[in-house]
Every structure is written in structure tokens, then in C-alpha cells.
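Please, structure for the following, as C-alpha cells.
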Amino acid sequence: MCFDLQKAERALSALAPSVLSRPGGPAQDYLRSPAAALIGEHAASQGMFLFHFEHREALELPASFVAPGFEASSAPPEWREGVLPEAKYQSFRHDLIVGSFHPGHRSKWTTHELCHALVGFGWKPGASTLFNATAGRLAELLPVALYYFLDEVRLRRCPDHQGGGALYREFCPACEALANDGARPFEARDERALRHAKDYLDGELAAVAQTLRTGRPVAHRWGSLDLCTDGLAYAAAHGARLNSDAFHRFGQQFLIDGGGYFSELAALEDRVVQVTRAITEGAPLASIVENAEQGRWRWTVQDIAWRMLWACEDVSDDAAAAGRAIVDQLADTTWDAHAVRSAYEAWEDAEDAGLPLAEQIFAVGYTVPGELGISLHQMQQGLLTAAPLTLDLFEDAGLDPVPDFCAQDDQVRRPLGDRFADWLGQTHPDVLDLARYEAALRHGATGGYAAVLGAGEGPLGWEVGVRVLHSTVDPVALAQAVSDGAVQGSVVDSALVLRTPDGEAIPQAATVLALRRDSGGDVAIVEVDPAIDEDLQSGRMVDDLDTLEALEALGMVAPRAWTL
């Protein structure tokens, strides 16, 4: 029995989630369910935290780490229209205790990542593929059970999805919004979620035990979940890296058995059970660090040390020797802010030997001493794909908005273009409408039932994924004018303002636009009367039938219900 069902029901029904501890991500991610709150509290006590995926410099994967068959997925991710995709097997590593925050992921991922950190990972030098696969399976077990079952306990969902589980690959904006309101009272459906969690965990642990007895992978499938196959895929993708001389050196110098990693599968399994009981029954969880401060520096140093060893792989022998000497020095010092800063300075001094730039290695996606941590180059590349015309105006004026924007860019679940526009609204309001328009062109979602079900009954509303922009200028005309050079950027009182080449201000023209992307990526844009937008937002009947027919033809509006 992985946890006591009756104890779990009592503990989780009584727990009032708080937001006293937030190791990263939006505060609401910890209020959504009791399990999420407990994960946050335990992770904070261990000094665990999340890096910002878009701020973190993606290093080139050394050729020696690329397993056969994974060559196509070995390149660093590239921005596409303001989105930096996170590859499943390259970006995600069980041995990285610092979790990943991706603005495009749903809010379940915050505590899923921190749960991985609390469980830890299994590794030993020269491990077999089956060892690595089973270790990966055990490391994934509780985070998956949390995502699909335990996080559902007392989670608010929309009327269409109550009791519908985690929706697997389907995303529901209404459910996400309701979850932000905090956990609801315990209900009968929560008993079912707990039973499913217990059955899933017990079934997986029994299959792992059979794997260890027989020396053969034994599957335990639950719907589309198959951790046996996932573990084998993980071992195939990461085996060369885990069994490399570089990782062996890293393990000897920086890993602590029982302190985030386990050299024996039985010890890792025990840790899975311990963390499970901590977040279901409220049982105490053994600390793997002296205190939160010491823990934070351990995870920071381990992360940076591995990035430095990674960077020593595909360089000259002299450069590799210089880099490894810095790693050796870091391993032998007290792991604190001074050690990290000294390692940065030493690496910067050694760049002439042929090492990658220190600002790349230390662009880890979280704050480190010396105002380091954010890859400004990577963020600029992202903004060039999200708001290219807006950046052109900054270039006209001789301004670089990237450092100031990044300095306040927190871990929030909004696309890059939208976050940039929000910041511009407070700092450079003249370009807000253009930036919001560019973001809407790239970040509009598709979805809804109207394309299949057709006309329905009653009043219409905006379809899922439609963006409605209220602007003080015509953003379509403004975008074309910027592209043609008929509008340029200049500086007035440190703010970017828009002017014609003759120095005249841009005329105001209040405009309401509706934008929708189709499944092929094409964007339909319609100007609508403000009164029509109000009717569609509020569910009132729209009198302008011509406009309504045009919007229906473009899939921009949908009925509330359909005839059976």
C-alpha cells in the first residue's frame, strides 16, 4: 500500500491551502489543490525552485551525448512566432533538480516539476539500460500520479469537465481560470480520484518489483499512461549522457547519495513512498538539505557545474582542461554566492582558451550573483519573432528594450508577445496597440465546436481563441505604415513615441478588431462595431445580421448550445 486511503481523505479534506511558500511560478498554482500546496511547502523547505525556460540559454548538445535515432531532436529549440518549444527528452532531465517553468504550459506543471525535485533520481556509474529505464520510471511515477489524480482532489473544474480528470491532452481555459480561485470543499469525486491514485501507484510499484525480480521490463498501463515505455524511451535518449565520463565526474564531485539522487533503486522507491505519504497523509518528510538556503545553493552549483562540464565536451583539449579545472575548484569550495561568482569570473578569464562564453553558461534562467541568469540574446531572438515591427521602432529610436523588459519579466503563464505588450503599456504606451496586435497575430488559439456542429440555438458569443482588441489607433494600418517606413520611432522623455518622417504625431482612430487563427496558422481579421462586441461578450442577441453572418463564416462566433 503506497498510502492509506482513509488518512488521505481526512488529511486532504481538512487542509486549507496557503501561499506562504512559493518556490516559483504563479501563486495560484499552489492554491489550486491541497496536494499542490503541500508540494510547494516541502519544495520551499528544501530550497528548491524553478528556472524560466525562455530566459535559460539552451546549450548545444555534445555529439557524444546524442543517442542513435535522436539526431533530429538534438538541436537546441528555436523560437517560432514568440514560442520556444520545450523538447521532451532533451530539455527534461530527471537529474536536474531545478525545475522548468514554461509560460506556455498549464498550471499543473509547476508542482509536477517540483515533485520531480522532491523525489529525486537514480543513477550509478556504468548503469545498465534497464537500470536507467527503471530509475526513470520511478522518478516519473509520483509526478504523474500528482498530475492526473492527486492534483484533481478538491480542484475546481468547469461544468463540462467536473469529474473529467486532467483532460489529458485537451486544454480547457475555463478549468484553468476556475482553478485559480482556490481549492473547493471535498466531494465524492475526490474519493474516486484518491482511489485511482492509490491503484495507479500500487500497480506501478508492483510492476517495478516484478521487473527487478525477473530482469525484464514489466508494463502497467492506465489508459494512455505507460511509464514502462516512457522509462525505456528516457534511457535510450539519455543513456549516452548518463554513462559518459563527464557525468561520472559530475556525480563524483557534486552528487550526494540520498540528497537528491540515489545509487540504489530500492532507496529511490522508498523516497517515492515517503513523498507520496507526505502529500497525501500529511506525514513528515525527511529533509535532504541542512536548510533552505543551503539547499538552494546546492541545486544552483550542481546545475552550473553540469553546464560547465557539458561545455567542455566539444572543445579542444586545452579548453576542456581549463574548464574542468574551474569545475574542480568549484567542487572544493563552499557552495554559496561567492563560489558561483568566482566560477563565473574564472570561466570568463578562460574564454580565450576556446570555451563558450561565460554569459551563455551562466544564463541559467534564474538569478545568480553578478546580475547574471537571463540570456538577453535568446530573449531578443524571441521578441523578434513575436513583435518584429515593434522592435523596428525601438531600433529607429536607438533604444534597446530587452534588458529592461527582462529585468521585470516574472514567471507568469502568458505568451512572450503578450507579456512584452503588458510591459510596454506601462513604459512606452505609444506602441502598446501595435505590440498587442502583433501578439494577437501570433498567439491566438484555435478551438471550439462550431466548426463541426454548425448553427445552434439562442444568442451567439465569441468562439474559443478569438482575440478582441480595443485600440486607440487602427493597428492594421499602423503596422503597414511601420513596415513601409511611413512611421518611425523617436524618444521623448525616455519613452518611445511614434512620428511620421515629418515629425507629425500619428492620428487617433478608435478601432475594435477580432482576430482568429485557423488550424493552418492563417489569421482572419474583422473590424467590428463596439456595440456588437458588447453584445457578443454579454450573450445578447446581435441585430446586425450582415456582420453576424460574416463572423459566422469565419468561425469567429459560436452558439451557446446546439439542437439534439
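The longest strand covers residues 511-517. The CA atoms of residues 95 and 121 lie 6 Å apart.
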